[in-house]
Amino acid sequence: MDQLSHKPDADFSIEKYGERTAEKEECDEQLLAEYAALLTFYITSVAVLTRAAVRQDRLPKRFSLLDLALLGIATHKLSRIIAKDRITGVLRAPFVDYICSAGAGEVEEEPRGRGIQRGIGNLISCPYCMGPWSAAALAFGFVFAPRTTRFFAGILASVAASDFLQRAYLAAKGKS
């Protein structure tokens, strides 16, 4: 007799997600449908832009190490500017609630609302979550407008280096 015939049917429904966790309230806040919509938008955008780049024969055979370093540093800074910078709070305001200052021109915020509003709030208030979106935007910028994107990425990388030097200066000043 088949061993699988005695097992209950597999249930792949979203409702089963988090069924076994004690953190039910946190689990209930998982916005799987909204995250699926955001992920679908991201993947579709990347696919459309990749297809356009292939058709125009614009995809690079490889990135240079310098371009990868510039892309990495610029991605870091762009995602932090979007997710944490006090000045860009106006862009996040429809999706988040302000909590407090985090120092160095950054803020702590939490997503608000329900549904897609909360899903977007989760995305744009998290620099780690914004990383792939920022990297994709910059990478496709390298493909379709390389000079402009390198210039913009250079500005972002310079600001990231400045941030590091400011913190190093404060740390050195505090130790003297």
Brief overview:
This protein is mainly alpha-helical. The chain is built from seven helices and two strands.
Detailed description of the structure:
- This protein has 176 residues and is mainly α.
- The protein is built from seven helices and two strands, in the order ααααββααα.
- The longest helix has 30 residues, at 146-175.
- The model has no long low-confidence stretch (mean pLDDT 88).
Chart the SSEs and their pairings.
Elements: H1 24-28, H2 32-55, H3 65-84, H4 89-92, E1 96-103, E2 106-111, H5 115-124, H6 127-144, H7 146-175
Antiparallel strand pairs: 1-2
Helix pairs in contact: 2-5, 2-6, 3-6, 3-7, 6-7
What labels describe this entry?
8% strand, 176 residues, mainly alpha, 2 strands, 7 helices
Number of strands: 2
Q: What characteristic shape results from the CA principal axes?
A: flat
Number of helices: 7
Spatial strand order of the main sheet:
1-2
Q: Would you identify the regions where 5 or more consecutive residues have pLDDT less than 50?
A: none
Mean pLDDT: 88
Main sheet specs: 2 strands, antiparallel
Secondary-structure element order, N to C: HHHHEEHHH
Helical fraction: 55-70%
Terminal-residue CA separation: 78 Å
Tell me what portion of residues adopts beta-strand conformation.
5-15%
Q: In terms of structural class, how would the helical and strand content be classed?
A: mainly alpha
Radius of gyration: 21 Å
